[in-house]
User: Fold these one by one.
Assistant:
Number 1:
Amino acid sequence: MTRLYAYCVGDDLAAETVEGASGVAGSPLVLFRRGPLAVVASPFDGKAVPATRENVLEHSRVNGLVLARTTPLPFRFGTLVDERRLQEHLERNEAALLAALGRVRGCVEMGAKVIWDAAAQSEGGGESEDEGPASPASPRGAGTAFLLAKRRALEGAEALKGRAEELAALLAARLEGLARESSVEVNPAGSLVVRAAHLVARGREAEYRERLRALGREREDLRLMLSGPWPPYSFGPQRAERA
Amino acid sequence: MSDAELILDEEEELSLLETLDHVLDRGLVIAGEVTIAVADVDLVYLGLNVLLGSVETVNRVLGAREQRLEYLRGLKPGGEGARPEGGR
């Protein structure tokens, strides 16, 4: 059964943007229009989309093609749907999609991952040496030592969480007046402590990179991986549900 | 392989990981309609790992990847049917 593989949706997509272009599996791109919305899609035969490097890059390339003209809301890789279901989805979510498209209009998504050596920090984490009166000779020694170790682990985790939140705030301060919206996930458990996406007006991508590179030069304990411009993968109407 | 080629490969891998991070874990979802066939188990594994990994972890994963690819080449790669819910 032929279904549609969906790449992105917009409210100002022009037919010539996709004319003559192809997508996943070499199928021609089409515009599926319903009301004020249009979805860039291509026919796909099969039950599932193989998650190959080639297909992932095709998905990204097609969305990049559209992003060169306007700012759509991209679908997640692997969105395969029949026409009736797609029509229902567009009709049911029209208001939310239009609102989200309005928010991202004229913008692109930029990404920053902040990498920080959490393991080194927790080892030298400055826990208190005042561990109370427990001694190996005490009958409570083993239990006390266990609880103290537990306490240290909890304090370490709290310190990492605090540090990660501090980094998120630092990013926000550096991007003040530049990032129209932010989506920041803090992950203090690993070395990658902040995974941030920012909505930035077109034409200001270089400024974004420059501001964060300056932060990287000032803070040698941080490594920043910057990426973009992307279509706004992180700023769709489902964003609130993800939080 | 020269150092320059090695660096280029790593950059390409990290660029791919960034792409995976975006397209596999973010973006609009039509409920129940994200269907991924795991034709390349390793690719999805890498994509999901980058979400929680660090550069060090990613480098380690890339090293392990070579070993896994060797192993998978000796088997038939995973076929269609598995359906990770397009995310973590």
Note: Chain A has two domains: 3-105, 108-230.
Number 2:
Amino acid sequence: MTQFVTLLKVLFKSRYRRDRGVVGKARYRSLMEQKTGGKFDPMWIVYGLLGLIAVPVVAGICWLVAVYTPVFAANGLLPYMLLMIYITVMLAVLVFGLIGMLTYVYINRDAEFLAGLPIKGWKLFLAKLCMVYLGELALAAGIIVPVGITMGIAGGFGFAFYVSILLSVLFVPALPLLLASLLAIPLMYCVSFFKNKGALTSIVVLLLVGTVFTAYYTVYFKFIAFQQGGTGDADIEAAVAGLISGLQSVKYVLYPVFALIEFGMALPTFGMTGAGAQLLALGIALAAMAAVVGITSFIANLVYSKSAAAQLENSSKRAKRAMAYESSGGVMKALIKKEWRTLIRETAFAFQCLFGLVVGPVLVVILSLNFKSSFSGAAETAGELTGAALDPALVQTLLSGIIMAIILMIVSGMNITASTAISREGKNFYQMKTMPVPYKTQVQAKLWLSLMISMPGSVIAFVIGAFLIPIPPLEAVLEGLFLCVYSYAFACFALRMDLMKPKLNWTTPTQAVKSNRSSTAPLLLNMLTGMVLAASFIVLGIFVSVLLAIGVLLVLVIAAAPLLHRYLFKSADRLFEEIEP
Amino acid sequence: MLQIENLSKQYANSGVYAVENLNLTVNPGEIFGFLGPNGAGKTTTIKMLTGILPFQYGRISVAGIDIKADPIGAKRNIGYVPDSGVVYDKLSGAEYLNFMADVYGVPANARREKIDALLATFNLTDAAGNQIRSYSHGMKQKIVVIGALLHDPKLWVLDEPLTGLDPQSSFDLKNMMRRHCDAGNTVFFSTHVLEVAEKICDRIGIVNKGHLVFVGSMKDIKEWKRDESLEKLFLDITGADPFQ
């Protein structure tokens, strides 16, 4: 047990301790002492901004829960509402946990070091699994705790309910994580036959994310449409009935979790009622969870041992390939090719950089269809009530604004290719400085790669939205142009941020993208900017004209783009020179 | 080939010089060994002359090109092999070598012969199609060496190049260094293995606490210290107590 705890502490520090290390240390410290006279960490500003955004979002979700809890309770559907929330958390944990399992547990650079320690394999595996679990626990707690407390208050539940919420925070992320550790096994086996394992893993994970998001939002909007009653879909009641029936089936598969709900809400369990039923439900939940944890840990540990052994033996039996002598046709192309290959073949990087590209179009399709129905329904109702028809152009403007917001915040904003362009180099950065290629050219190559991801993503998502809404051609062309120029401007800004203080001293790829101010600050700023721009477009479009609204936005970005371009390239050489790997 | 004049580097606001007033000339055709205890400034010096680290004072010129005035021109003449063996391990050996050939401007028609020859020398032909992350430490070191030699650099800079290499590869690398210099080029390398320095270097330099305290050939050492070994000289100069 002591060994396990010691190992856990080391892994925790290695993963989460702030980097006070080598890169730019002297310069960073001198800057801090000169400018602030103390030890204030600007990262707190970023945390503060995160809090400012998170608080209204969480508050909004809690408000929805408070409103719908009595409605669902009256229909006897409250347990299923809570189960849906748990399933939502589980899906998120499954997706992010799968990536964590692949990049931190099964395939990791510290396999050799850990294998040499006098610690049994199952302890190593459990310690690593705990590390991934802790990350997912934070995600689960962030959703379940506020929602659970709100539901408890709105539903008038007793002490047992809050205990069940606490237990569910621990259990709900555990199940999908264990499932992820099993899902990773066939995934790793399948990709082992292919040349570019890293790239294929990245693509599979992204497709999985896209599928999960599509399925989730489809179900979610069906549910909301039923509540609003405004979709005009004749089969919506049947669809919701099917959903409830589905959840009733699912509860048996997820019985350990549903048993917790039965315990918390004092529901009958196996025909029993009262305190006895609650204790029985709690006992079933704990025992089932222990069994699931034990069995899955046993299986996954076997795979971990083999995976670690394979890594250490550098087994590449399936991977003998012929040598190719290919010129890329120039230094810029060679740099971009190298950038792309190193990005797509590292699952953690590929997921973070391409996430928006996959999810953005999915969200645009789903939101376009569902909001279009909702607004049309509302327009009809408003028309019936007021006797005057609601202007369809108003609906179109609202939808355009929403699509724009999604593309700006998710496709452009969540694309961290530019904001981690230098950080992703890590310990390889020295090669960038020794190559006989001007620093500006290398920065240009990184910028091009970022644009090659964000621009097509924005255009594809926008074209889909423009087709579905639909948006008149002239407006569509101008809006598309706005999104492209915005992508360029944002990429220049984000790359400059990373040039100023890159995080090169990382040991896992996740560190390069997560605990990195260069990736977090531009992302937040972009989200805020995206919201403001989209809101401005909607307001100007409704109260003045859409063309004027687009014109104003276009003028703004066309003015900003060259300034940000200059902001990046004017100091690129100096900043590059100052980075000391 | 390599001229270093009054080179000094001070870490920001610390007042400590990593390297101070270093003056050194390395001629074409020389293998120059750069020795010193840990933390003496060897790697810092190497990083400055390869353009990785900036420096405040002094001048470095490679093949007559000032590294500050024309960094690109200077870097084109340098092939650098770091001590860490860190390389883009998501690329295959072939992809990495093609990338290096592209950035150093090795023509497409010439690279096949060069790459094949170097891969055969280091016994990496079969592994070239695999991702570098599947390589052993020694194999990674070899692929980095090959990448640094593709463009026939006039100055070959190696930081602890023999670490992790098997005896055959070490032998081949030393031979390669000699042949490279016999062709009129220069090799500048740092090492902790004094026997290697004694055997293959034309001249050596010993750095201690940021200062170059000795430069000369083995003959100069023997004349100065009357047949004492390089090891004894090294320990005397760096003030190390062999029995501590």
Note: Chain A has a mean pLDDT of 79.
